[in-house]
Amino acid sequence: MQFPTDAAELDRLIREHPERLAELAEYTPSWLGDQLRSAARDSHRAASHLPGEHVHAEPPRWLRLAALAALLTFAEGTATTCRCRPRIDRPQPIIAAAWMPGTVACRRHAIEVLTEGVPDDADTRCDACGVVPPGGLHTGQVVLGPMILFYAACAECRTWTDSEREGTR
Ligand SMILES: [Zn+2]
Ligand SMILES: [Zn+2]
Question: Ligand 1 centre from 134 Cα, in Å?
Answer without folding.
Answer: 35
